[in-house]
Task: inverse folding
């Protein structure tokens, strides 16, 4: 609207010139040149009126280049330069034309020479400046492309001292205003074309992505008609006895009546009604497989991703069976065995472990073991966080030969030799540990009884040896007494030597 207003204002002097020309009486010889100039100006203005039709559908660069060529051809000037603002990049688009076509001059070089005057206000022109394309000086005039130079500027230079004349100023204003209007339209079309191209590119990229993903992807409009499905989804159609043409554009509930009475219908309806994404798993008998489905609503309908997870489900089922067998095996073992995760929470224990602890720990709650209290062999308390199981998980190593004493809730104590060993994943990270508890209580009792027996035996042996020594001493004393009596009775000699 602003450029159009400028153009209308620029046409008013032309109308006045034409009116004056019509009202003029007989033209004198002295005014022949002025009339010729007026007629030339009128012809130039009429020529400019044809430019908008020529510029229709053209790009901005073509418009500005045509403008400069036209001005160089119409006016007696040395050069024409234009600096066009490009909104997309923010960088100027420059163009230049010289009256002497033998001289080649880069637009950027001419722009650098004129840079200091590109931002001058229009009232400061015309100006006499050094000729940027030749010798001496030239007079330059600056004309905005649009109101406040929003599209760019045009600078015209001429070595003539009378440049620009009134008629030349009129022609330049009309031409630049016409160009500004055309540039506005061209930029609008360029913006639309660019946005259309970007949208097409984005759609193509999305389509390429959707065609390359391994998930089955389909789109339904608000009437539940199938509007798109990717290559992976199309691979399922032969297994359902359908073709591409039989599915596209059809109502999904009519195509698959079995889905209309399943949880799929409920989930899809909820997603659209509440505008919330939904995710669920489903076993679909016609395809004999498990599918993980994620549906995302929009104002236009519903986009659905589905992935075949049959292999994963089979693996999970096999793992559960294996885990069940493993747990049954652990529970059947006579040895006390339990396991903890990486945080020390008890995840598994068998009946022998519960019997040893005198209680059943809470899975996922009890830490490190199911013991009520733990003591060191010397009888001093051992904190749970420093028990062998905790050290094995924390340090990632097996603990061997460290005896402990556990105390049950009823106060009874048991001697235990634990064998905690870390469990690692494929990367080597510790994810828990398993521990076997060997009850040493009976052995300890036997050892104590043996020590007591040995001590008792030693005492008895000492007593027997003492009694034997006393008996022998008594016998010796008897012999000595007998000998003394014999000596006293005068029977000393041969009898004594014979051992009497």
Result:
């Amino acid at each position: 609207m602003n450029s159009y207003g400028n153009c209308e204002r620029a046409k008013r002097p032309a109308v006045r010139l034409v009116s004056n020309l019509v009202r003029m009486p007989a033209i004198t010889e002295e005014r022949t040149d002025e009339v010729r100039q007026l007629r030339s100006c009128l012809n130039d203005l009429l020529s400019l009126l044809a430019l908008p039709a020529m510029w229709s559908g053209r790009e901005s660069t073509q418009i500005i280049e045509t403008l400069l060529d036209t001005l160089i051809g119409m006016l007696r000037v040395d050069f024409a330069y234009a600096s066009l603002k490009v909104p997309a990049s923010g960088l100027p688009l420059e163009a230049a034309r010289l009256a002497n076509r033998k001289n080649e001059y880069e637009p950027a070089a001419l722009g650098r020479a004129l840079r200091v005057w590109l931002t001058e206000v229009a009232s400061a022109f015309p100006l006499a400046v050094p000729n940027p394309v030749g010798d001496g000086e030239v007079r330059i005039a600056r004309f905005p492309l649009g109101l406040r130079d929003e599209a760019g500027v045009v600078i015209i230079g001429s070595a003539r001292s009378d440049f620009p004349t009134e008629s030349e100023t009129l022609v330049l204003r009309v031409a630049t205003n016409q160009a500004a209007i055309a540039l506005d339209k061209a930029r609008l079309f360029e913006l639309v074309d660019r946005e259309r191209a970007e949208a097409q590119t984005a759609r193509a990229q999305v389509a390429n992505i959707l065609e390359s993903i391994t998930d089955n992807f389909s789109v339904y409009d608000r009437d539940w008609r199938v509007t798109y499905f990717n290559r992976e989804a199309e691979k399922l159609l032969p297994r359902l006895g359908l073709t591409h043409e039989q599915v596209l554009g059809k109502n999904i509930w009519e195509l698959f009546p079995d889905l209309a009475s399943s949880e799929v219908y409920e989930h899809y309806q909820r997603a659209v009604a509440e505008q919330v994404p939904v995710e669920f798993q489903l076993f679909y008998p016609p395809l004999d497989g498990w599918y993980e489905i994620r549906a995302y609503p929009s104002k236009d309908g519903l986009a659905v991703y589905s992935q075949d997870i049959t292999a994963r489900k089979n693996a999970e089922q096999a793992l559960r069976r294996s885990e069940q067998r493993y747990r049954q095996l652990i529970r059947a073992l006579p040895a006390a065995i339990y396991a903890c995760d990486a945080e020390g929470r008890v995840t598994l224990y068998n009946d022998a472990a519960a019997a040893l602890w005198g209680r059943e720990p809470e899975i996922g709650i009890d830490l490190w073991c199911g013991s009520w209290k733990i003591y060191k062999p010397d009888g001093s308390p051992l904190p749970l966080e420093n028990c062998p199981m905790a050290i094995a998980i924390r340090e990632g190593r097996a603990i061997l030969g460290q005896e402990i004493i556990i105390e049950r809730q009823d106060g009874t104590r048991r001697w235990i030799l634990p064998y905690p060993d870390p469990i690692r994943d494929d990367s080597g990270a510790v994810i828990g540990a398993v521990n076997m508890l060997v009850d040493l209580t009976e052995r300890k009792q036997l050892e104590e009884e043996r020590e007591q027996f040995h001590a008792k035996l030693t005492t008895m042996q000492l007593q027997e040896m003492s009694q034997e020594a006393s008996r022998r001493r008594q016998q010796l004393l008897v012999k000595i007494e007998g000998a003394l009596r014999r000596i006293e009775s005068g029977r000393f000699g041969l009898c004594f030597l014979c051992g009497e």
User: Anything to note?
Assistant: The CA atoms of residues 113 and 132 lie 6 Å apart. Residues 2-191 form a domain with the Beta-Lactamase fold (CATH 3.30.450.40).
